[in-house]
Amino acid sequence: LSGTFATLLAIRLLLSFRSQPKLVPPGPRPLPLLGNLLQVDLKRQHESLFSLSKTYGPVFTVYFGPKKVVVLAGSKTVRQALINYAEEFGDRDMNPLFYDLTEGHGIIFANGESWKEMRRFSLTTLRDFGMGKRLSEEKIIEECHFLIEEFEQHKGEAFDNAKIMTFAASNIISAIMFGKRFEYEDKVFQDMVERDLESNLLAGSAAVTLYNFFPWLGPYLKAWRDLMRNMDINKQHTRNIIAKLKETLNPDICRGFVDVFCTRMKNLEHETQKLHYHDDNLVSSVINLFGAGTDTTAKTLSWSLLYMAKYPQIQDQVQEELSRVVGVRQVQTEDRKNLPFVNAVIHETQRLANIVPMAILHQTSKDITFQGYFIPKGTTVLPLLTSVLYDESEWETPNTFNPSHFLDEEGNFIKRDAFLPFSAGRRVCLGEGLARVELFLFFTTLLQHFRFTPPPGISEDELDLKPVVGFTLHPTPHRLCAIRRQCQSEGIFPPDTS
Ligand code: HEM
Hints:
By secondary structure, the protein is α+β, with helices and mostly antiparallel strands. The chain has helices at about 1-20, 45-55, 75-85, 95-100, 110-130, 135-155, 160-180, 185-205, 205-215, 220-245, 255-265, 270-275, 280-310, 310-325, 340-355, 385-390, 430-450, 485-490, and strands at about 60-65, 65-70, 90, 360-365, 370, 375, 380-385, 450-455, 465-470, 475, 480-485. The longest helix is centred in the middle third of the chain and has 32 residues, at about 280-310.
């Protein structure tokens, strides 16, 4: 009798389970047409979404106009989704803006077999031409010296380092892509970098966000028209550079990414592989790597110098460790393991600066039930990296610059799971390895040579840490003094006798 009862109970449970409605992630009630646009400040979306997550939990729905977006918030949830369900959460959302940028070609705004092949190819080629430790180290160190010269020209007077940092970071990608760096005065180079900078701001503007949800608005929005114009001009610059490289292509001497790609285009025999090696994928991949690899690294470096000027005691500790461990010679990547405080400062810079606060929109590649919620295939997903990097349950003082987040009691560097500025999983930043080497070498070399301070008459307290919101978070335009360190006072470098 008890066996029959147990069977009936099991069947009943099964039936009740099967008939349960699928649970949809909660969220604020949307209005017709507007969705939740009244609850989300389009100029500071990441902050609005972070505060909504405190009301609706780690998986919630918001409507940007008619567009439904599932937001993932908090370290545990974002990591669980991107790492444990990497495939399910690993497609890219193909919204109108992303499509306009590269029409589904390249790496960042692409999906399927073409994306897989381009990502694989880029990783391998970047490893051979840049991320392979020795090569990238040489290129970065060479660029550091140009940067130092530029800084020195200001003779300790206050200046805005934003543009020069962007030139330096851009030159590392140029060397990897084209096999050459540009002079900072090169007009085409300047135009490309400046258009990229402006495009970054435009892409994160409220107007362009609106375009994504109401694409018919496009022609009426100046921001969108300017963005498209910048993109077209930069595409043409890139095509011109590639055309010149093609004219002088010698498969025996590959100068960089473009040469390897072009040689592959010529030599491939299988039609299926040829499918992905065409000019559109080449141009879009180059544009993607420039776009993703320049602004992020440059802005992180600008943040790092701003934090040093703002917190002079931390700058003292950085310079003390550098003097003690490295002395006057050039810093090498190898030194990182012996520089725990410096390493912690760079990590804390990336955490607090929170450069890419909302990652880049993902999309589910199949139906998934996640944390009890049903999320159908094709749903737009926003991994809110801000909520990971500022997660109160992970960081002792999430809103303040505190390198101790990455140090144990003995002062050893510690890795933290919630350190996710490069995102995670299938779409994790492709340039993470390169970016880490760049940040380390640029930051340490600059700090070896210069002391960073606010301009005369401005106190550390007055330095503004509020970010300007674009596609990435920039420091508010500001000026700092880069004062050459002297050997007499600090035991570092011989005085400049030139
Ligand atoms: C994607 C951060 C530097 C190339 C991303 C994403 C983030 C990110 C958050 C989005 C991941 C996602 O969608 O979940 C950063 C930061 C950098 C940096 C903080 C520097 C401090 C670089 C560099 C390169 C690069 C130097 C190129 C050499 C890319 C590419 C993608 C990407 C190609 C798209 C990957 C894909 O869709 O498969 N990055 N990035 N990034 N990043 Fe970076």
